Amino acid sequence: MADAYTRFIRSAPGGMLAKQLGLPRPSRLLRRDDRPEPVLGPVVVLGASAGADAVAHRLLEDGADVRRRVEDLRSIGSVIVVADELSAPAELGPLLLPLAGAMRSLAPGARLVTISRPATGEEPARDAARGGVEGFLRSVAHEMRGGATANGILLADGVGVDAPGAVGALRFFLSARSAFITGQLLTVSTEAGSTTENASLPLAGRTALVTGAARGIGAAIARTLAADGARLVVLDVPGAGTELARLANELRAIPLQLDVTSADAGRRVVEFLREKGLTLDVLVLNAGITRDKLFANMTPDRWDPVLAVNITSQIALTEALLEAQGEGGGVLGAQPRIVSLASTSGIAGNRGQTNYAASKAGVMAFVDALSGRLAPLGGTANAVAPGFIETEMTAKIPPLTREVARRVNSLQQGGLPVDVAEAIAFLASDEAGGVQGETLRVCGQNMVGK
Ligand code: NAD
């Protein structure tokens, strides 16, 4: 449901007023149910490398309407720029500039995806070209209109365009599931993972546990993972028992009432899974709280609970799961996926949120380190960093601050809980096996960051 300003702007008088005054006019974003086709066509694949040919070939095999030139197309659904073999910045112009004249032909909700490689610090001219793609991508994303997005995939050297992570990330960014993600670059660091055969139920046969699932983003994550075929355990505090039971009924999920900060939380989760005979494939560490105050007025009763819920509980729970694994009688599946909730506040900082930002920056560093522990098990750990998402948490922000916060991004609106859930479902999938220790922002290219 759109916010009040957006509803007004979409009315005839509101639209006229916004045009005259130059006010933000957010476009309606098309999500999974609005745009079921996986790729909006026609899709143009730019680039002359063998990688570009391979990407075009795969899309053709998937049934997409694939072109290799932008000229003469009146409407373009998707553009993929394959820049996997750059050696100097002079190559950027010939590769990118043909697209300039076609920008106005991009359809509403179009997708632009670059596929390039991260700088390695080894070859100055090559690194400059590689960095150039990132600068281009982040800027062009600010210029997209009509709910269109632009994102990049960074393939580590040695990872091919046909690697599961490369294919999976491309599918995700081209789909409507990434509606609120723009201006972001996601690194695929290994060829691990496998390409999903069952595209409509990519998590079939998997068991997922979501903490803080009773409402907001957590409930949306549970619903999305269930829609992707996973069996769910939904966890929340006893005080949210009624909402949790309702969600569990809706999803045929197993409810678990537990405070994640309790000293024995990890042990109780392990015992619960053993009792139910469940093997955990996906763990989503979503439970989180805010206790905002300027640092000058910060007190332990505001600092401690935020750190305890948002990060310390995550460390304790994953330690308990890994310990159980080490002792035999483990409860983790063959390729466990752990996804945690960070925040753009943890990236850029935010006035009044020293406690929250400390916890969320901690989350990002934590998943990076944890991914190293999980890799030998075939597992991954990653995070998503939501920007402004319309939930009960953000409904508590004072009205004027809230209105500014939801507009200061390239899509000029707040995201929905389902947008965060879609990114988590992707990171939980087989296809994302090569994505390790990353934080993916789901923020509409919030104008904060480093
Ligand atoms: P919310 O307050 O609507 O829901 C949080 C849920 O976590 C609630 O159901 C709550 O009962 C549960 N929870 C809190 N403490 C718990 C504990 N000790 N044990 C078990 N469950 C507990 O919040 P939300 O907006 O849905 O946020 C979900 C996550 O996303 C949080 O980690 C939050 O920091 C993060 N996030 C949200 C936004 C946003 O804009 N809403 C932005 C960035 C990050």
From TrEMBL:
Chain ranges of the Ketoreductase domain: 206-391
Cleaved signal peptide residues: none
UniProt-recorded Gene Ontology molecular function terms: oxidoreductase activity, acting on the CH-OH group of donors, NAD or NADP as acceptor
Top-rank taxon, per record: Bacteria
UniProt-listed NCBIfam families: PRK08261.1 (NF006110)
Family as reported in the entry's similarity comment: Belongs to the short-chain dehydrogenases/reductases (SDR) family.
Full protein name: 3-oxoacyl-ACP reductase
The species this protein was found in: Brachybacterium paraconglomeratum
